[in-house]
Amino acid sequence: MSGSGLLHKFYSRFPEITPGKSGINGLIGDVLQALEATFIPQAGIVVEEFTAPLAAATNSVMAASATPALGVTTTLLPVAGGGANELTLATVQNLAAAPRQITFTTAGATPANAPVSATVYGADERGLPTVEVVPLEQVAGAVTTGNYFSNITKIVYAVGKGAGATIAIGLAATIGLSRVPKKRTGVYVLFKELMDGSAAATPGVLDSAADNTAATILGTADLVTATPVLPTTQSIVLAIDGVQKTVTFSNPANLAAVVSQLNAGLGAAVAAAGGVASKFLALTSTTKGAGSSINVISGTGTGAANILTVLGISAGFVRGTSYGRYGAYAPNSAPNGTHSYAIYYEQDATVL
């Protein structure tokens, strides 16, 4: 196959359009066949320009601000200059020039006061409306949206649990693409990067949405030797890819039985990392993509009898690596608010 392969899609989508037959469908088929013979050798080349994207920073969208009081729901809006629980308008406007992932960093005296989630309303890499619910860390740490945003109209916190935590909102490093890059012989075809008008820039790294990885938490449980008998009331609560599930154990004799009972309740999301003799437990999301995530919420029991302790897992949120709906680009010289880039790459024209 040569070129983009774009016109091949018409025949599979419209089987009634057939070259060489009489009638209007045959005529359309003949025209498409002629167009295909003319244009199929030509690959689809995309040029994307990113004007002065800002540097990655944990607090460039919003400085660390106290979380909402108990029972309060807060809406964050873009405001000139920004401020406490306000989005910095200039940073939000910069997203139009270079779509980015949004980071949420939990800190403060009582990180557990952080809202369970934040809902981001805005536009994706192509300017289309998008909404993403982001589970927030309940311990000190950061999470990142799976989507790349070219605009944010508002961010809404879930109902507040207390003002003892802080949340800072910022930008991740990579830039979202508006088209899916084409991979040939195992590599992406990136022809050139121009930076600040110079043709001598060293190209960065091109990724596609197909490179996304599922989120995985590794425990340190011993899957071979016996574990203390767990009572039937022992349970674990977690959300995999946004779906919250509770698994209650029925006196598992060992950790292999724990794995079996977890799989029964979670849809085969748990496995021994490295084989049955491994001493590591892998808790993995069931999908691969922008929404791939695990939120370990809680476990019953105390001390050494707590199911999370037994499994060697800490409560918290993990998202797999995401490159958005289309793809992402990491410039060789990281964004700093002054560099402007133009990149030339081949798009996968069969994915519109």
Write the layout of secondary structure elements.
Layout: H1 8-13, H2 23-39, E1 45-50, E2 57-66, E3 75-76, E4 78-79, E5 87-88, H3 89-94, E6 102-107, E7 117-123, E8 129-135, E9 141-144, E10 151-157, E11 166-171, E12 175-176, E13 183-184, E14 187-188, E15 190-195, E16 205-208, E17 216-219, E18 235-240, E19 243-248, H4 255-266, E20 270-272, E21 281-284, E22 293-299, H5 307-311, E23 316-319, E24 327-330, E25 341-346
Parallel strand pairs: 4-5
Antiparallel strand pairs: 1-25, 2-11, 3-10, 6-9, 6-11, 7-8, 7-10, 12-24, 13-14, 15-25, 16-24, 17-21, 18-19, 18-22, 20-21, 22-23
Could you explain how this protein is built, in words?
There is one protein chain. 13% of the residues lie in helices and 34% in strands. The longest helix is centred in the N-terminal third of the chain and has 17 residues, at 23-39. The chain folds into three domains: 1-40, no CATH class; 51-179, Jelly Rolls, CATH 2.60.120; 216-319. The chain has a four-stranded antiparallel beta sheet with strand order 2-11-6-9. A four-stranded antiparallel beta sheet has the order 3-10-7-8. It has a four-stranded antiparallel beta sheet with strand order 19-18-22-23, covered by helices on one side. The chain is mostly beta strands. The two termini are 18 Å apart.
